[in-house]
Every structure is written in structure tokens, then in C-alpha cells.
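S.,

As promised, the EPU run. Input:
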Amino acid sequence: MKTISNFSLKKINSFNVESIAPIAYFPSCIDDLITLSTLGLSSFYILGEGFNTLLVENESPIIIKPEFKGIEIDEQADCTIVKAAASENWHEFVGFCIERGINGLENLALIPGSVGAAPVQNIGAYGVELAQYCQEVLWFDFETQSVIQYQHKDCGFAYRESIFKKKLKNKGLIISVTFCFPKKWSANLSYAGLDHLPASASSKDVMNAVIKVRQSKLPDPYKLPNAGSFFKNPVIEYERWQALKSKHPTMPSYPQADNKVKIAAGWLIEQAGLKGYKVNGVGVHEKQALVIVNYEAASGKHIADLALYIRRQVEEQFNITLEPEVRAVFSKGEYNLTEYKNG
Ligand code: EPU
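Predicted complex:
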């Protein structure tokens, strides 16, 4: 198995901060995973393409970076089954499907990262979530050294959540993701930025429109280092939402099941006066306040400090606690940003 000591992660984290891994493993087959599981590693982090990770310290834990490639298509009467290996690039995979007339993922175009990272946080955008099309996740379990098939219903998918992020964290890794795309398809134009398209729009039209919206709203991580939305949109009880809405009638909100309402974290941060705020070379993006940008090669600590500052300001003004969506990795492993700060 490919193994590199003192491996710099600067080029493979989208905040573009320097952090050195004492050792990085690059498994590319099941035998490599078996070898890895016998090493008894106590602390490590599994890195995809590094688009949703904040490396807080100059040293990272041991890194496992899977290198599983390949896409298989299985045409069935009423659906197309596509199995993509974990290390395929997500956006290229979306393009691959759309080019072949396999529709469904067009609203999820241009999301940076790998296929294997997609189920972990159940990526979602413009009215579609990965969970809608994910049929099965193939998982390698370190303890039993076996491959386990997690069917959709067992993946615990919810808004930016899955069992891979919580219960199964560090217990194994995703090898591939299998999707089921029904042949009967209609464009999902529910998002405000897509409702100008005609109902007859093709999946390619939708994909191109999504790319345009993303390029107009979100900073390009290759030009302005960032990790997309830094926080999740908070979901609050209906009664709390009513009280807030009466004070702030223009607050964007999205009703959910179970008497809850999702509110826009970007709006809260903007209302807290932080849109465009900059400190220590790090800032809140001018167009989308939910995105933290590393403008001047700041360190991971500076980015973490700004995130915690934003969180405190929103807490003070709205009594709402923002939960990071981006995963914070320290030299000893992954921690909740606030827990680490407190102890
Ligand atoms: N808003 C503001 N100020 C801001 C940003 C947003 O007032 O600075 C308002 C917008 O005007 C809108 C609402 O907040 O009324 C929601 O904004 P937007 O449609 O831009 O989406 P978002 O909720 O901020 C989420 C996802 C994005 C995804 C978009 C589109 C999360 C955490 N983020 O952002 O995903 O692209 O919806 O579906 O759910 C990501 O996860 O990295 C990501 C970019």
C-alpha cells in the first residue's frame, strides 16, 4: 500500500492551510484495508478530497486517503443502477451520468469533493439530497475486516447526517456508493434560483443552471479557499420560530416535519452584522455569509477562531447555536470545535 511519512496536506484541503500528517496511507484495494485494520491505529482521520475539513493545527492525525476508482452501470427495465467507487470526483461523476442520459443528480452538480464523502454528510443542494437516489453504501469494517452492504434504510440519512458521520465514525470506510435512478424523471425546479426554467428543461439544462447559480453565489474554492457552508441551517421548534418570525418578518424559513422549521444560518450571520467581516486574513464571504474564506493564507486556528466568534455573535443576538457542518480536525483527531476549545 502506498504510504508517505510527514505528508503535507496543504494542497488537499480546500481552506488551503498547512498541516502535516505524521503518516498517510493510501489504500486502493481490500487487501490494503485488511492491512490497515491490523495496524491498531488509535487516532486517524479519513480524508476524501478535503472540501469539508478544517485542519485546525499544524500537525494532523494519521491520514487515511482511499484511492478506489471505477464506475459500473447496470441498465434495468425501469431504472439505471450506477455504482461509483469512493474516490471518484463527485462533480465528474454527476457529469458522467448526465452525459449518458442518466438523470437525477443534476441539482447536485459542482459540489466539490469525492463520491465517498457524499453519503457521510448526505450532500444536498437546490431541492435534492443524495439520499433520494442512494440505494446502497459498501463499507469496509475495520474490526471484522469484512465488507458490509448498508441499504438506504440503514444509512440513517437526515439533513447533513448519516450513520457514517456518527455511529460508524472511524470504524471503517466507504468503498463505493450505489445509486438507483428511475427512468421516469422530471426536473426538480423547486429552488427559487431554478424556477425560471421551463418544466420541459432537460437534466443538462438543469445542471447548467445549477452551475451558474453556484458560480454566482459561492466563492470558487480554487481561487478563494473555503469549504462551502461552514454551519448547518438550524432546525428549531415551531413555537420558537413563531416568536422569531414576529420580530423578523423577512427571515427566510422552511417548514419541516415534526412541527419544526429550518432557518437560514447565512441570514442569521448577515443580520448579526458579520457579512464581509474580516480578521487575521480570514473572513465571512461578501455574497454568502455562511461561507468562511481564507483570504490571506491564514492558519487553521484563525479560521476556527472566526467560526467560534460567528457562533457567539449569533447566539448573543438570536439565542440560536449554530452547529458546524465542516469537520474540525486537530492533531489528536476530529473534535467538535467548541468541545475542543473548552477543554
Ligand atoms: N441568505 C442571506 N444572507 C446570506 C446568505 C443567505 O440572507 O448571506 C438567505 C438567502 O437570501 C436565502 C436563504 O438565506 O433566502 C438561504 O440561502 P441559500 O439559498 O443561498 O442557501 P443556504 O441555506 O445558505 C444551503 C446549503 C448549500 C446549498 C444551498 C442551495 C446548507 C448548510 N447549505 O445553503 O450547501 O448549496 O442551500 O440548496 O444546508 C454546502 O453544504 O457547502 C452548501 C453550499
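Residues 125-126, 191, 217-218, 228-229, 232-233, 252, 264, 266-267, 270, 275, 288-290, 325 surround EPU (CB under 6 Å). The first strand starts at residue 2 and ends at 8.

- D.
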